[in-house]
Specification:
Helices cover 55% and strands 0% of the residues. By secondary structure, the protein is mainly alpha-helical. The protein has one domain.
């Protein structure tokens, strides 16, 4: 008997600012190049239309910027993170 498994969708688990912050922090620790895609996951969890309204950015522009191939500007990142109620921070690492 085989069992069908669903693909993991992180958007199903991003239901609080704390969960969002932990997810984005883990992405930055593992592979910062995935940040745009991870922000897209959060946008799907929270609703792209709501994000567009909260940031003042066009929904289509957000879809492009927060895709797997997206390359959002700092201004877009800042607006999106603010809308999610999280902030980016930097820690010193030892050489």
């Amino acid at each position: 008997m085989t069992e069908k498994l669903r693909n993991f969708d992180p958007a199903r688990h991003l239901d609080s600012e704390e969960a969002i912050a932990l997810y984005l922090d883990a992405v930055m620790d593992e592979d910062p190049s995935l940040l745009a895609s991870a922000l897209g996951d959060v946008a799907r969890a929270r609703g792209m239309s709501d994000l567009a309204q909260d940031t003042g950015l066009a929904r289509e522009a957000l879809y492009r910027a927060l895709s797997d191939e997206g390359n959002p500007t700092y201004e877009t990142l800042s607006k999106v993170l603010s809308a999610y109620g999280v902030r980016m921070r930097f820690d010193a690492v030892s050489a």
